[in-house]
Each structure stands twice: as structure tokens, then as C-alpha cells.
Amino acid sequence: MQSIKTKSAVVHFNSKVYIELNSYIKYTNPSSIFILVDTNTHDLCLPKFMAQLENGDIQTEVMEMPEGEDHKTIDICMGVWEAMSQYGADRQSLLINLGGGVVTDLGGFVACTYMRGINYINVPTSLLAMVDASVGGKTGVDLGPLKNQVGVISEGEMVLIDTSYLDTLPQNQMVSGFAEMLKHGLITDKNYWHTLTHLENLDISDLDQIIYDSVVIKNTIVSEDPTEKELRKTLNFGHTIGHAIESYFLENDEKRTLLHGEAIAVGMILESFISTKICGLSTVALSEISEGILKTFAKVEIDKKDHEHIIDFMKHDKKNSHGIVKFVLLEAIGKAKINCEVSNEIILEAFEYYKNLS
User: Fold this and answer.
1) What are the required cofactors (predicted)?
2) pLDDT in tens, 33-54
3) d(Cα 120, Cα 63) in Å, to the nearest integer?
4) What is the CA angle 152-107-338, rounded to 5?
5) Which of 81-90, 93-102, 169-178 has the lowest mean pLDDT?
6) Which residues on neighbouring strands pair with residue 60, listed in sequence order?
7) Which residue range is the domain that position 100 belongs to?
8) Does the model's pTM come out above 0.85?
9) What's the CATH code of the domain at 339?
10) Which of 3, 49, 237, 322 has the fewest CB atoms below 10 angstroms from its CB?
């Protein structure tokens, strides 16, 4: 597969991954290498990675963090910064983030802020990180239950996508990443959406290609609008409500913690319903979207008493301006519209629509 050039980095795939990594290390000769993993990737991915790494005599340290979204915090960053300092990391050190979206988001933020910035490389091991989290330079951590409230936009040196790491994933994590791919189709490409919702016509050998296509879509958007002034906002379709649901369920001990993709799947259905009220999305398209998403994602039980709490969480969405919640909505499948204002009444109607879906 041909490598994809971003604004200031390159995304390499499969056969090129370790050739490019080792060539980079040989050429740049970092003073030390730090590898950030979580408890899962330490056991399941690190041995393979280390077997391919040609680090020569360069001091190399592995740092392990707990797995899961609830550990994507500034406290964990503090631990990583302190470990790097204790092992003598300097501005010529290299940080390699080997893991899913939590590891690449947090590790990227650590690199961007340690000594005001050191080089880093993302090696995503989950589908979500491959198609979304690791690409585009968004780094950061959560603030309590609020998603990605602290961070910077700054690309690493490269992203290395080795799809064989997907063999280590449980099914629910694969499904979670699929939500972002569906989003890419909904906001930019009806044909891609159609491909993803008819995967019964594909075999496993097609997986690499649809991952590649998703990275191309995201990179095209990010390259045109790297700091999210206009077009890049479309990547937040499904996330205004989806992130609020994810945060509310994470904070509420009575609720099952949702994977990111599970929450975003709900958000995309609700925001598609809202699109029929605000942007003229057809009811036929709404039905197609709802059915396409529910082919893969089970419905999430959201009680009526939860609605106002979820709406409250939307006030912290990063697209908001002057206290007004701003949505990304759909005019049609493959065509998104940014900066849409939506009344609470319509949001509540969307929850009712979702509840009544079979």
C-alpha cells in the first residue's frame, strides 16, 4: 500500500512499517527511545514490536499505563513525564506510542509537552486508533468525565499501521472502531458508506483496503483544515451527543461504561434524526442510516431521566461558541453541514425516535 503524506508526517502501512521505523531511527539517532504501552498492548503487542525494532545501542525504556478511557488523565501524564525524567529523557529523545486511542492521545500529549516538545511516533493497535485517533495530530487527555478537554494539535513524525495487531483485539473493540469508519462515509462519501454497510459482500482480505480508505478520507479533511476552523469540524458528526452520552455513562456508576464507538453510534443516529428537522435530510436516508448502524451496534438503553443530564454534558463540547451548542448535521448521506444550532426540544424528539427503533 502506498504511504499517505499528511501535513507534516507520513502514514505507513504493513510491509513498510518496520522498514520506515528502523530507517528513521538510524537516520535521526535519538538519544533515547521510550515506548508507551498499556497493560493490554504490553502483553499482546510489545513482544512483536520489540522483535522488529532495530534500536542498536540506543537506551530504550518501556513505560506501562493502565488500559481504558478512565486512565486518560493528567495524573497518568504526570507519571509518564516523571518516568522519562528519571530515565534521563532529553529533547532528542523519541517517544513511541504503541496502543489504542487512549495511548496515542495521551502519549502524543506527553511528547508535545515534555521539555516543550519531543518527537513521537504512533503505532496504533486498535481499529479506532488506526482509522481515527492516531491520525491528524489531536493529542490530549480527559478532564474528569469530559472528553479531550485538555490537549494540543501537533502531528508526530509518522504513523505506522500494522493491521496484524488487530488479531489481538476482542470483537467489541473491533466494532467500536467501525463507528468512525461509518462516520467517514456519512460525512464525505455515500459509496464508502454503502460499502461498509454491505460487508457481507466482502471478505477479510478487504479489511486493509477499507482501513486505508478511511485514513485517506480523514487525512484529506485534516490536511485542508488542520486546526479545525471549518471543514475538520465535520469529523465530529455524531460526537456532540455521542461524547455527552459516553461521558455521562462513564460518570454514572449505575450505567455500563460504553466504548467510544458504541456511544458515537448512538450519537450518529440521533444527530441524523435531528438532521431531518434542521438540514433537510430525507426520512429515507434516516432509515438507511439507522438500519445500517444497528446492523453492527446494539441499541443502548437510555432512560428518559438521563436526557437532561446528557444535554448538560453537551455544553462542554469543543465546537461550542459563546455558550451555544454547535452540531454537525447531514444534508444528505455524504454531505455534512457544520455550526448548526439545535433546540432542546428537537434533541428530546431524537431520543424518543431512538427509543422506538426496533
Assistant:
1) Co(2+); NAD(+)
2) 999 999 999 999 999 999 999 9
3) 14
4) 40
5) 169-178
6) 33
7) 4-168
8) yes
9) 1.20.1090.10
10) 322
